[in-house]
Amino acid sequence: YKGVMAPNFAKKGLRIEKLDMSENSGRSVKYSLLLTLVVENHEWLQGEVAISVRGQFGIEEKSILLSELDNKKSDADRFRFRYFQNINGKMVLPDGFEPREIMVVAQSSGGKQRLEKGFDWSLNGG
Question: Which pTM does this prediction carry?
Fold first, then answer.
C-alpha cells in the first residue's frame, strides 16, 4: 500500500506484486494475482495479463496456458485500474502434470510497458 500511495519510495509504473495460491480440492487450486500501479498522477492503466504454468508431464517439460486450466479465463485477461487489481480464479491441473513454476506476463495497452515474472509453485494452506 505504501508503494502505491507514496511513489517516491518505489519504482514507477505497472508492477506484478504477488501471487497467492491455495489448494481447493484434489487437483483444483485457487489463485489470486495482485497487479499494482505506482505513479504520481494516478491515471488509469489498462492492458492484458497472460498466465501459464510450467512443469513436468511425464518425461516431457510442458507449459500450459491458464485458459486450459481455468475454463472461465481466456488466453489473456484484460485489466483496467488506477491503483491495484486482483485477478482471481480456480485452475484444475491435469492428472500426471507436476507444476513447478507460474509465469505471469503483463502488457500495458500501447506496448508502453511489458513485465514478466516467475513464481515458484507454492501452495498456501487451503
Answer: 0.83
